[in-house]
Amino acid sequence: MPRYRFSEFILSPRRRVLLRNGREVPLIPRYFDLLVFLIERRSDAVHRREIFDRIWSDVIVSESALSQAIRTIRRVLGDDSREPVYVRTISRHGYRFVFDAVVEEDDDGDWEHERPVSPALASSPEVSADPFEPLLSRLTRAAGGPVDEEDQREAAELLHGLGTAEAMRRLGTRPRHQFARALLRDTRWDAAEAGPVPIFGEPAPVATARELVVLRLRRAAAFAASRWMNASLGGGMAGVLAGAIGGVVLAAAPSSSAPLDLAPVLAVIGGCCGAAGGAGVGAGLSIAESIARSRRDLALISGAAIGGGLAGFTAQWLGRWSLSTLVGVNVVTGGGIEGLVIGAAAGLGYSLSTRRAEGGLAAPRGPKRLRVIGLTAAACGLAALALTLLGRPLVGGTIHAIAQASLGSQAALTPIARLVGETDFGPLTAAVIGTGEGALFGIGLSIGLTRRTA
Fold first, then answer.
1. Which DSSP letter does residue 15 get?
2. pLDDT for the residue numbered 408
3. Architecture category of domain 2-115 in CATH
4. What's the pTM?
5. DSSP 254-308
6. Where in the chain is the domain with CATH 1.10.10.10?
7. CA–CA dist 169, 394 (Å, integer)
8. In what order do the strands lie in the sheet with 94-97?
9. Would you call 130 helix, strand, or coil by DSSP?
């Protein structure tokens, strides 16, 4: 693996360091990888899609994430987008590293000190004007469009470079300080020099938190909506499969009078329940993942639990009302607690298996994706088992209870109970069916969540 010399810079991919005149220039890991990639491919104009596939291979991010990365690289190299010396934008295509005097060398020896820094290069030029005020003014004015929004993000990054603590102190409570504080908090993850940007303990913490949530959701809204729909579809397909399998097994069980026609009916019921659960848990997970950069595990578990609980309580109310009003059957059905527990379990499995995903919505590939599916399915299956052992049936158990309360119903699951060694639908049958439901839901949900769209 070579190192690269260009102008006053040395870039070492092996040591993961960028030096300018002998001094290290900080870059966050993904931006460092992007600079290396552009230099490695300097003979080509690299398409945006290639960059996303290489640098953000494990997450989904917006186009603005790439624009921000290029802007940061230009800033640390002292480049100008209007007259680029290093990185040129190729309209409607991507970017190219255009500096033509790049030297490749073996990356060995104590090269950090091969070129002593001259006093003229080491010293920064004196700036008579206050550098903070123009940037704070840019940060606190109302943005007139996407160009102004990107300009404000650049101002926030520059303020981090000057000194985060001093920028926060000077910001004070001037107009729109809540938005400015939220933007400083958001951009600290993209500026290697950034210091902490606390929200609580500072002026207007609730308003600042609200601005931060809105800011991050706006940048990830399209991906969050797509992920929510995929999660709903994945949960629905898992429900269809669970219902169809249950119907076929019930029809084939000895001493069962249930017709095979029951399978598509149970598949439809399972699909509706799975889609509703997937929509709730998926929405909670997608929103939490869009807005959380710190305390990610807690945010994902909480978001998934809240989403699953809301979907479950809604289904519980609709189910009881429909049964009572339409057919006069009064059955105690679950939904809310079950949705909350299954959602929390899904959030736990998903967060544990995507911990290394940073800077976007996790979208692992290959074995990493299988790990997400496996851990999420296992967590949901164990949660479902715990619920059934506590006497809280899931979809299969609820269908059996409704069938028992309805005269002439052929959907009672007693024949399946006999297959597992019970004379009637008991704890063992509930555990087997519930665990299977939970695991299948986890599989469908995680497949939907991790699906990459073009």
1. T
2. 66
3. Orthogonal Bundle (1.10)
4. 0.83
5. TT----TTHHHHHHHHHHHHHHHHHHHHHHHHHHHHHH-SSSHHHHHHHHHHHHH
6. 2-115
7. 54
8. 46-47, 94-97, 87-90
9. coil
